[in-house]
Every structure is written in structure tokens, then in C-alpha cells.
Amino acid sequence: MADNSNFIDYVKICCRSGEGGAGSAHFFRDKFTSTGGPDGGDGGRGGHIIARGSSQMWTLLHLKYKKHVIATKGNPGGSSRSSGAEGKDIILEVPLGTIIKNAETGEVEHEITEDGQTVIVTAGGHGGKGNWHYKSPTNQIPTYTSPAGMGRREWKIFELKVLADVGLVGFPNAGKSTLLSVLSAAKPKIADYPFTTLVPNLGMISYRNNRSFVMADIPGIIEDAHKGKGLGHRFLRHIERNATLLYMVPADSDNIAKEYHILLNELKQYNEELLDKPHILAITKADILDEELKELLKEELPKDVPTIFISSVAQQGITELKDMLWASINDDGLS
Predict the structure, then answer these.
(1) Is 319 annotated as belonging to a binding site?
(2) 287 in a known ligand binding site
């Protein structure tokens, strides 16, 4: 994965759509007709600002320095009822999982979740109608047209929430990056100190019969992350778009159940709906435990969540974990 400087999940852009072209007040003329009827065409629509989803992108980096995007205006109408050309649309490619907000109100206006999906972020002005529209039995020579629509100038916020089948949730050093590196071809930065992972890492996980699912290593949460402590809000928003959550607590934690409930509380305080997502609890670094210790720990673990002991390094419980995740993603009644 790219380093932290290349992962941009928030940009604010001034979107200026094009104004519509003017309608024409032309009258038909040729060498045989000097006072023909109205034949002024319509003006062209102004250019839109459009967002289009791309499965090949995972960051908003390419938009970081686009502080202003400006579409062109429509061309005026011509004679013989010919319409003016539309203004050129500006198309902004965005990763799947991008939401677009009104910068003034904070209202979410669009969500991009599919490859090729397009939405009009800021609409261009409509073209003015030509005078031929206004001919009537009582007005054979209308000299007026309807005015063209003005373009809009709007500030928009583009915010990326990583879209994945499974999101890994845990404190720093819970073993999330190690698990992702073992399960997929992703190569996240791994070291034994907090906040090694500063951006979400995505990995494609191969499963049986050529099936696969996407896993996101969400940067480590800390207690009070929901208050913005650490990089809390930036981390937490990426959890919202994951279908299933895998909570990870290391076997050498002082109190596994307590740590799990702290994680639950952080998600609840940020967005209570996150607790409704299917979830599994993995006790990581389980290679340090013998069977007797595992049995003792099981007595202390929460009873309302499917639980598994795993070791990424020793490859313990990995196949079983993938089975549990697949069942959870596909609603097989696991949780």
C-alpha cells in the first residue's frame, strides 16, 4: 500500500457549473422570404460537475489540489431551430465509498458505491428557449426568448469511507496488519509500536472455489477515539462501510473482555448503528497459549459474540476464521 502521504480521504472543492446558452430570437430569411416566421433555436445546457465511481482508485489524492473545478457554458441557439452545443462536463473520478456533502450544511447529497456510477454534483444551467417556442395565432413574430439558467458555484466536501466486506477493529498492536498480510497479498507496514498503521489498508482474501472478499485493516482505535482523541474520527468513519466487523484482542491483554467492551463502546459512542453489524471476536497471538489456558480464557469471554483463537504467525485458526467471516458476510446466521 502507499504511504500515509498518498492516502487522502477528505477534500473540499469549489464546483462551478456552466451557465446555459442564450436562446435565439432569429427569423427565417432566404432570397424568397424576407419576413419569415421565428426559427431561433434553444441555447445549450451549461456543463455539469459530475462524480463517477472507479474501482481502480482507493484515495482522493488526485483531487487534493483541485480547489476549483469549472465547467464551460452552453453555446447560444442558432437559426433554423438549431440548438447550441452543451457546455463541457467536468468528470471527477472517485473511489468507491466516497460520499459528497454540501460544505455549508453538512448534508450528505450523494454516495458512490458502484464502479461506473455517476452523479451530478453541481448541475449546469439550462439553455434559454428560442423564439420559435413562442409563436402563436395572436403573436406571429415573437421577438423574445426565455432566459438561460445561471451556472452554480457550490463548495462540496468529498469524503472517503473505505468500502470492504470485513473491517478489522482493535487497539494498536492487536495484530490487524499481520493478519491482513498473512491472508492477502497486501503488504502493510508492521512494527511493534502504536499507530504503525496510519491509513486503512485493503487486501483481497482468497476463499474456497475461487471466491474472495475484501478486508480492510482500519488504523488502531484508542480509548476516547470517538471524542477525536488520537486520530479517532478519521479512523472510525472507515468502519461505517464494512459489512462485517472482526474485533481483535491479543491473548496477552490484561483483560480480554474489558478490552472488547471498550472497543464496542468507542463504536457505540461514534455511531450506535455500528453495533448492529455482524461481528466476530478473534483472540490473536494465540500461539502463546496452551489448551488449558484457552479453556480458562473461554470462561471469561463474552457469550454474545462468535469467538475464535488465532495466530497469524503460527497459522493457527486461519482457515476456520475465513469460514466464519464468509458465513457472516453472506448472512449464514453466524451472528
Answers:
(1) no
(2) yes
98-102/153-160 β-pairing? antiparallel
In the 8-state DSSP scheme, what is residue 8?
-
175 is in an annotated binding site: yes
Cα distances from 132 to residues 39, 85, 252, 302, in angstroms, run: 5, 18, 81, 75
Pairing of strands 68-70, 10-16: parallel
Report d(CA 200, CA 177) in Å as an integer: 10
pTM of the model: 0.69
Cell triple for residue 329? Answer: 458476510
Q: Which residues contact 100 (CB under 8 A, 6 or more apart)?
A: 51, 108, 109, 110, 111, 112, 119, 121, 156, 157, 158, 159
Is the distance from CB of 219 to CB of 162 less than 8 angstroms? no
pLDDT in tens, 131-190: 999 999 889 889 999 999 999 999 999 998 877 899 999 888 788 888 988 888 655 444
Is 172 known to sit in a ligand binding site?
A: yes
Question: Annotated binding residue at 71?
Answer: no
